[in-house]
C-alpha cells in the first residue's frame, strides 16, 4: 500500500481499518456520509481528520492528496467516491486484502484462513466451523462480517481465522485468499449495494479469485451458479449436495470420504439447509487438516 490513505466510512469495520492503518504507520484521512458524535470521537482519539459528507469538489480535493482509498463495506459500488477514485486512478483496498497482505508478512508466518460466502447460511456455517476448529484444540475466531473485522482479528492470539465474507467485502478483493473456502448459494439480494445480479454474482465469485492448486474449495452444487464457478477451478474441489458429492447425508448419517461424521438425530435441527451447512463446515475443516472427523462430530 501507499503512504496516505482515505478511509471512507467509519462504522465498525471502517474504524477498525483506520486504527490498523495508523498502528502500521500510514497517514490517514477519513470521511463518512453520516457522522455521529461517536464516530467523531473515535477518529479524534486516533488523531485522524474526519470529513463529513464531502461534496464532489471537496472529495476530489481529498483524493488528490492521497495515494489510495479503503472503502468500508457499507460504501456501495456505485458510490461517487469510487467513481472519482477510478477517474483519478487511485488504488482501492478492501478490508480483506489489507488484512491478508498484513498477515502474509507476520513474523512466524501467516495463520490459516477459512472463508464462507453465500446469500444465506454464512453466519451459521461460520459459527459451526469456529466450534469445530476449537474442538480440535486450535484457537479460532469468527471474523469479517461479525463483531470482529478481520483487520482487528489479526491482533488476536488465535490459530485460525474463520471469515464471513459478504459480497460487500469480496467486491474489492484482488489478493485475498483462504486455504479453505466455501460458496453456499446465490439468490437476489443486496441490489441496493450492487448495480445488478451480475455484479452481485461476480463479487461472490471473488472468494475463489486467488485459489491455488493445494487449496480447498467447497461448493453446494445444487445451486447451478455455484456449481458453474466451482467446476471452473483448478484446486481441490469438494461438492456438497450433488450425486457425486464426497460429503453427503445417507440413511440419516452425515458422511465424508473417511467415514461417518454424525447421525442427523444428534443434530439440534436437521432440516435440509442445516444438513448442507453442516456438511460444508465439516469439509472446510477436515479437508485442509485443520480438524479431525472426531472433533467435527
Task: Explain what this protein looks like in three dimensions.
The protein is α/β, with parallel strands linked by helices and 297 residues long. It has two domains: 90 residues, Rossmann fold, CATH 3.40.50; 189 residues, UDP-N-acetylmuramoyl-L-alanine:D-glutamate ligase. It is built from twelve helices and 14 strands. Strands 7-8-6-9-10-11 form a six-stranded parallel sheet, with helices on both faces. Strands 3-2-1-4-5 form a five-stranded parallel sheet, with helices on both faces. Strands 12-13-14 form a three-stranded antiparallel sheet. Strand 1, helix 1 and strand 2 form a beta-alpha-beta unit. Helix 6 packs across helix 11. The longest helix has 15 residues.
Taking all Cα atoms into account, the compactness measure Rg is: 20 Å
Average the pLDDT over all residues and give the rounded result.
Answer: 96
Question: Helical residue percent?
Answer: 25-40%
Please give the count of helices.
12
Q: Please report which band the strand proportion falls in: under 5%, 5-15%, 15-25%, 25-35%, 35-45% or over 45%.
A: 15-25%
Structural class of the secondary structure composition?
A: alpha/beta
Q: How many discrete structural domains?
A: 2
In this structure, how is the largest beta sheet organized?
6 strands, parallel
Please count the beta strands (DSSP E, at least 2 residues each): 14
Shape, please? Answer: elongated
CATH topology of the largest domain: UDP-N-acetylmuramoyl-L-alanine:D-glutamate ligase
Q: Write the element-wise H/E pattern from the N-terminal end onward.
A: EHEHEHEHEHEHEHEHEHEHEEEEHH
Q: Give the neighbour order of strands across the main sheet.
A: 7-8-6-9-10-11
> What name goes with the CATH superfamily of the largest domain?
Mur-like, catalytic domain
Distance between the termini: 42 Å
CATH architecture of the largest domain: 3-Layer(aba) Sandwich
Low-confidence stretches: none
CATH class of the largest domain: Alpha Beta
